[in-house]
Amino acid sequence: MGKMPDGTAGAGIREEGSETDPALPPTAVDETVREAEERKWTPARIALWAAIAVLGGVAWFMIALVRGETVNAIWFVFASVCTYLIGYRFYSKVIERYLLKPDDRRATPAEYKADGKDYVRTDRNVLFGHHFAAIAGAGPLVGPVIAAQMGYLPGTIWIIIGVVLAGAVQDYLVMFFSMRRGGRSLGQMAREELGVIGGTAALVATLLIMVIIVAILALVVVNALGESPWGVFSVGMTIPIALFMGVYLRFLRPGKVMEVSVIGFVLLMAAIIGGGAVAGTEWGAAFFHLDKVTIAWGLIIYGFIAAILPVWLLLAPRDYLSTFMKIGVIVMLALAIIVVRPEITVPAFSEFAGKDNGPVFSGALFPFLFVTIACGALSGFHALISSGTTPKLIEKERQTRFIGYGGMLMESFVAIMALVAAISIDRGIYFAMNAPVALTGGTVETAAQWVNGLGLANVNITPGDLAQTAKDVGEQSIISRSGGAPTLAVGLAHIMQQFIGGTAMMAFWYHFAIMFEALFILTAVDAGTRVARFMLQDSIGNFVPKFKEASWRPGAWICTAVMVAAWGAVLLMGVTDPLGGINTLFPLFGIANQLLAAIALAVCMAIAAKRASFKYLWIVALPLVFAAVVTITASFQKIFSATPAVGYFANNAAFSKALADGKTSFGTAKTVAAMEAVVRNTMIQGWLSVIFVVLSIIVIITAVVATVKAFRNASRGIPNLDNEDPRRESRVFAPAGLLPTQAERQLLAEWNKLPADKRFEKAGHH
After folding, report:
1. Rounded to whole angstroms, how far apart are CA atoms 606 and 291?
2. Which sign, positive or negative, has the C-alpha torsion 502, 136, 375, 572?
């Protein structure tokens, strides 16, 4: 209902205080009718939810309490899906009813600010796809794979329970509050709600954290494609494919989204199959066999060009592709797990769960598991999207629950599937793939010897096993392919070949998975760079107003170059890190991301308090306290720990002393240059940790002060400052969820009966 008859978006603007046209049907379902519908419990509905609860309970019992030698992967699918359904149906309804109280008679920014560019009423199902594509980057794929070092149970509990009580809550609240404020960004909301000190701290922290996030996303791509001719060719081909799709959709066949998506998918499959053929030739193997530093520089150049190109040319078509690929592949993997039912031999708690010196990442289970798995459970990066493009496109207020809470549940499901894929492969292969080359030695012989020396139960890997696995997936080597993406690809290929194709299809499924991951990670790299550029332009614009003009190309180019240089420097630091860049940087990424989540939740708590929602403030305070405790504890350990494997400055001191003593190798660094790189990298990482945690503590303290002040004002009968946009009556109607309810269908029918000249699309113009 959000489009004009000619396909364009209706402006839907009304003057403040105007009433809806009495000649038009209602713009929302009557509250009493909606309440009666929601509270109507038929025997069939009761039986359905009872079955979901029982199935979920059995699945959790099998995963958490039954201690056999193996656990079937099918229980992970059932436990997650049943928990998501119950969380969405009941917990998110509590948030909607008692904390947010949406009003569909109130116009959203997409209606009263409609401009056909940034503010456009968008069908809820289309917007769900766009929002999911934007939030689901590398995090839900990488974090769970790395965290599998601790065993399967800690990560499973955090991903599933964490998203219901924390991650989806943050996304939903930020989206709703931003929508009520005209689509304002998290930094702008922080400035309004927390004052100059808290707001400035939030703006600076957000900008710096964006640099780290984009650098880590790029590092995952580098590690996936390093020395992989097949991967480099196939992923490289996605760029001209996306450009072709952009031109096709813009000039050749405008509006034919499904048509161009089918063409793009066929071309993608051709790129994957063709990649195998090209990599099998002598010239292809030589030309596309690139080292990680070369690929990193290629990504830096790509990031700059992609971020300044028009959105329709590269970014938008890649979004279409990635949305189909993401949801399609994850659903396909879930079906394959149900059919194949792979047995998981990884223990619930591994040998490293009680230690802080694991080979994949250092640090104890608490707090580092909760920052290693960020996206998929709780992700601050989502707050930037939920207060960025999405709230400017929502048709009706009640849709925020479906898009914000529901979209995050879908990302959590991606994380669970990634975890299952990682733990479905042999544990020896897992550690050989994810430990840095300084530990594995880089060859199948040294890697097998190192893995067997870890003392893992029922693990006895041979050089032949490692060589055969590499051969099966069409790679020269799988040793020290850290970063999560290659491990997920091996796991997905291991499960999918049992479902379709057999061992002969292993190489195809592996590179299909690499393409699947790199496709939308690249999207996050250029989209992240673009968002970071906007943020920097706004910041500089406070002093040089010209920079706030998005159409001023020199400003856009300068700010893009600055942001690309910033994340590019961190990327190169990670690529050349002898400790294994992803292994060293991912804790910093996780901590920064979770600190950003704490900032977002702190801002939401202050807003909820000003709305006098004190009785249900615990819904926000619970995840805020947990995120604050976890991230501040992790930050303090990274800053102050005397253990070199954990503390950045302790590691810096150890390597500095070794250099001062004239040593030419130390620990994992085999050369003086490598030792100097460790000294430089740990110093940068240490001070970034200090800056992040100090800024976050400032924001949290100012939010607590604002909350206490709001409570005192309410108890004295003093109204709190309301920073919401003035209320405007809506003149449009759209259903709230995936499928319209019976009352919504009846109302839609009323709207559809209106003659063309009376419909709200026309009535919205003045």
Report:
1. 48
2. positive
Write the burial class of residue 447 (CB in 10 Å: 0-12 exposed, 13-18 middle, 19+ buried): buried
Share of the chain above pLDDT 90, in %: 47
Rounded Cα distance between 537 and 528, Å, is 14
Tens of pLDDT, residue by residue over 498-553, are: 999 888 899 989 888 887 777 667 767 877 787 778 778 777 877 888 887 656 88
CA distance 397 to 177: 10
3-state helix, strand, coil in the chain (%, to 5): 70, 0, 30
- How large is the angle between the packed helices 168-180 and 186-225, nearest 10 degrees? 130
Tokens of 202: 């939030």
CA distances from 521 to 439, 558, 588, 663 (A): 28, 24, 19, 40
**Distance of CA 710 to CAs 540, 614, 615, 717, 719, Å?**
32, 10, 13, 10, 9
| DSSP result, 87-122 | IIIIIHHHIIIIII---TTBPPHHHHT--SSSS---
CA dihedral 226, 230, 236, 242 (to 10 degrees): -130
Over its C-alpha atoms, the chain yields an Rg (Å, rounded) of 26
Q: Are 64 and 348 a contacting pair, CB within 8 Å?
A: yes
Q: Please state the separation of Cα 491 from the chain's center in Å.
A: 21
Residue 167 and residue 412 in contact, taking contact as beta carbons nearer than 8 Å: yes
Mean pLDDT of the chain: 86
How far apart are the C-alpha atoms of 530 and 598, rounded to whole Å?
A: 24
Phi/psi at 311 (5° precision)? -60, -40
